[in-house]
Specification:
The chain has about 400 residues and is an alpha+beta fold. Helix content is about 35%, strand content about 15%. The chain folds into three domains: about 140 residues, Adenine-n6-DNA-methyltransferase TaqI, Chain A, domain 2; about 100 residues, Bipartite methylase S protein (Helix Hairpins), CATH 1.10.287; about 140 residues, Alpha-Beta Complex (Adenine-n6-DNA-methyltransferase TaqI, Chain A, domain 2).
Length: about 400
Amino acid sequence: MVPNGWDYSTLESLCEKDAPITYGVLKPGDYVADGVPLLQIKDLLLNLSDLESVHRISKELDEQYRRSKIKTNDILISLVGTIGRIAIVPKQLDNANIHRNLGRIRAKNYEFLYHYLQSDIAKNRFGISSSGSSQSALNLTVLRALKVPVPPLPEQQKIANILSTWDKAISTTERLIENSTQQKKALMQQLLTGKKRLLDESRKRFESEWKQVIFGEVAKLSSKKYNPLKANQCLPCIELEHLDQASGRIIGSANASELASIKNHFEVGSVLFGKLRPYLRKYARPDFEGVCSTEIWVFKTTSKLLDEYLFHFVQTDKFVSEANKSSGSKMPRADWGVISELVIKIPNLKEQQKIATVLTTADKEIELLEQQLADLQQEKKALMQVLLTGKVRVVV
């Protein structure tokens, strides 16, 4: 059932007659410097933000696939891999082409269709879960036959305008997060190298000289282990997949008592760093006691180094670069023998504390923005559910 005044139409029937839904180039070939831009799934995953990395094909091949050329405001949808990703073609990509793994949808009322195809309603009809694809490919026949509940044109436009307002707020917040993240990186570079000195409690700038030390002299690897077969305490277990990349967030845990292998034990406030593929920058400082994979280092600091300062230091390019001098080619692991010999300079404990406090404040500001982003995305999702089904009617 559809609301009064609405009707069901197939996606194909809503497209322009001279531009049916289609996919693109099967074999793009090598990059052609002065060729025609060719969009692929990776470009959609980047929200078409990195146009410099777009592949280019020869003009001859582009002509062979002129049926799949794209125009400004065309809708693109991923057909394989991470299926159901949606994007609108920007002006700067007018007259480009697409890969076989993308579908092109051209419709006059593209704004409404864009939001509908993004919705869980459409994804459920494609058999796609809200977190990603549950199948490996989206067939064009299925795409063309998708039934879309279509309100009158004025109502379509009003719904699209409302949802676009949320999109703009989401984009603005994403830019704020990116800017804040870059600012924090710059601040880390200045504070953790001594290029910028903060004020002490008496409002005077720190002046004491930083001391040169060997990393392994101020930080050790904790040797405390946890055997789930012998332990009588149930603790949360952090695996590598529970560490969010380059954010310091812990995004899940397992129950250690349900596992069989030996784990590393950590205390509240311990600094953790994933040694497997260290370039992924997986680090954390949990506010709880627990255990973790043996692929995660648990640091134990000496009296010369604060945990909260170390937490920010392991995020630096200097530390990660040293950790990447690893053993193993397919599954590289950071080598403690290399890291422990790293020469660093550290300030006194009071300045360490001040630096850590400033950087932690920056982290909290980013976390707040990320929460605002999650709230906006959830609000838009709820709006889509009621507006795109007619459960809530807009006033035109």
